[in-house]
Model the fold of this input.
Amino acid sequence: MFHFDDKVVMITGASGNLGSAVAQVFRAGGARLALVDRHRDLIEEAFPDLVAAPDRFFNPSADLTSPEAVQTMVQQTV
Done:
C-alpha cells in the first residue's frame, strides 16, 4: 500500500472511470485530493463524503487548455 499522508494529489478527469478509480487509490493512501473535471457536479455526485470533508478535498475549476488557468489552479491548490 502506498502512503500519501499530507500529500496533495491533483487528478484531472476525476469523474470518469479511470480518474475515479485513481482517486480512490490515493484516498486510501491518505492523500488530500484536488479533483478536477469539466463537470464539477459529477465530482460532487461521485464523492459526496469528500465534499463534506473540505480538509481532505478541493474541487478546483480551470480550463485545462489555458496554461495561465492551469498555473492559477495549481497555485490555489498547493
